[in-house]
Design a protein that fits this description.
Layout lengths: L4 H4 L4 H4 L1 H14 L5 H17 L13 H12 L4 H8 L3 H4 L4 H8 L1 H10 L10 H18 L2 H15 L6 H21 L3 H15 L1 H13 L1 H22 L3 E7 L2 H11 L10 E7 L2 H14 L8 E2 L12 E6 L5 E8 H9 L3 H5 L5 H23 L3 H11 L4 E5 L5 E5 L4 H8 L1 H5 L1 E6 L2 E3 L11 E5 L16 H32 L14 H7 L4 H9 L5 H8 L6 H8 L7 E3 L7 E3 L11 E6 L3 E6 L3 H6 L6 E2 L1 E3 L7 E10 L4 H11 L3 E9 L4 E10 L2 H12 L4 E6 L1
Parallel strand pairs: 2-5, 11-16, 12-14
Antiparallel strand pairs: 1-2, 3-4, 4-5, 6-7, 8-9, 8-10, 13-14, 13-15, 17-19, 17-20, 18-19
Helix pairs in contact: 3-5, 4-6, 5-6, 5-11, 6-9, 6-11, 8-9, 9-11, 10-11, 10-20, 10-21, 11-13, 12-13, 13-14, 14-16, 15-17, 22-24, 24-26, 24-27
Length: about 725
Amino acid sequence: MPVNPEKMQIDVTDLYGDPSRFLISDLCRIIEEYMNHDQVREVYQAYLFGAQAHDGQYRQTGEPYIYHPISVARILAEMHMDSKSIAAAILHDVIEDTVATKEQVAEKFGDEVSELVDGVSKLTEFKFKNKKEQQAVNIQKVLMAMARDIRVIMIKLADRLHNMRTLGIMRPEKRRRIAQETMDIYVPLARRLGINSLVVELEDLCFRAIHPMRYRILEHTVSHSSGHRKEIISKIDNALRTRLSELGIEATLRARKKHPYSLYKKMRMKSLAYKNIFDVYGIRLIVDSVDDCYRALGLVHNVFKPIPGKFKDYIAIPKENGYQSLHTILFGPHAIPLEVQIRTVEMDNFAETGIAAHWLYKESGEGEAVDVQARTREWLTGLLEMQQNAGDSVEFLENVKVDLFPDELYVYTPNGDIIKLPRNATPVDFAYAVHTDVGNTCLACKLDHRFAPLNTPLYSGQTVEIITSSSATPNPSWLNYVVTVKARTNVRNYLKNMQADEAALQGQRLLTRYLLNKNINYEELDNSIFDPLLADFGFKTLNQLFEDIGMGNRPASLVVRALFPEELDDEDHKKISEIDSLTPLAIKGTEGMVVSYAKCCHPIPGDHILGMLSKGKGMVVHQEGCKNIVNERFQQDRMVDVQWDAELSGEYSCVVQLQVNNERGVLARLATIISDESANIEHVEVEDKDGVATTILFTIAVQSRVHLAKIMRRLRRVKSVMRIARL
């Protein structure tokens, strides 16, 4: 849209009347407190541009659309954000909802503002399979823009806050959907960035939208029961003020009330009635220095007895988002628990505005501001790594959600360094938190100098030592218990790459085998012969073709036909498409994830076997007489003639069924025999038949048919065993 400079200079009262004029004046009064004249002028020019761009547009509430971006800008101005952020907030919808372009915004206000506006804009030009994918892609775009400039998420959070404030006009089901999305994504983001003022208001607005009746009842209950508790708080306040004055500690005391959602969450989690919640009110002490924080802590513990185990020192060990404070719970008058928070002025500002406090303190270079910024940058770097390794936008969003809900614990390295981890973290999470290479080569661990399983949940105060080996690699089973995004992402990424490498090797073996049946040596072929085939199949490299064959997506026999169509007569085509025994593929047991063993027949070394190519899974090895193979024999292209390699490694699962007399201790005797024969019991299933006989199914890991036969002979000698068979 070409912007007419003359039209932009008209008085805004001509567009929207006095109310809109009041809004921009109100905003200017706020920013004039901390901005210079040129910065205020830039914000006002952004308002004029936005007013013209949104001319004729109205919100569902019936008010002019420009009301919304001005309100978003006001939220940021109250946090003392910089002029570029305020200007971008006013313009945040012009690219998405008007004919104005990013180039026009850049020409008028510079690249910095245009990039902020573009980062907040949604991806309206793409088509999505469903609402979940659309949400995931949009959130991913915002987070990636945020990684480049943290102000993007500040604008997005302010935008969402104002939308939540005006949500009442929406239909109930849409209100609940938007509120749930806000609770799932934006509230945790605000909490992760330490912006408590936004967290509190967004949580209450979401609570009111999702559970309107519960919100009203709880709000009514709190307002009607506040009188008595306020009197108690007042007495405590006076007692603390007197003692603080005696010790010469200057402090500001503020009474603090739990907001409705916080109360509701506590009632739900602990199954409490409102009358049984005693920390609805608390006191916050704001002092001048860290030294005064600890002096004040000693004072309040002297005036009122502390409740054991309820003290938390977030000054010595700040939260991940930079939050610092001392928390303690005291026995107040009438034995009512009272929470007291003690912090400095700077800590209080950071607690309320989080990363936004960086702009408030960056001129003075306050240490806490620098620390908060560094912590946030570290997290954003992790987001970029997560984005690179995630399979798609939905997976990325799920990883972000996991990362945004940490209940922290603190453990120590052998050198005494503190590592922060989420609740239920394991030694594998710890290993990846130390360094990616430590996680990838993790072999075992010691907790407080004693060996422990890698899936052991950690708790605060433990010393964790990771034992590594250059030959160790990530185990797929780790995905069942790791909780940190860094660990999960790195394990998945390693397994994806490993599977791709194994699939490529397996695909090359399959193709080489089919070429040998035509007396063609793969090693003697020029790779250029594959170029037309790669172009037809849409592959960039020969390795991708091998990977596709190895994963069972494209039979090697069809690839051979496509490579040499003119050289194959009808007899040759028949020969290649049949299961031949000239060059059976050797199964070594070390093929990894691209070769698996069928659960229906449990083949083990010594069995006659046949391979079936399964799309996306690679090759599944069956016993030759398996009914599933018989049913699929007409699909010749999927069949691969295989045999066990002469040199095998590993263990293979099989199922042994026993019918035994129902006697005490029989299961233990059978399990002992299996263990004595160096076989691992993977699963046991017991079924009583008639009270006299019992059927037991052992799933055991053996090395071969010879190993299994030895185990079964020993089991058969047990007097209680009436019948034994391999299933």
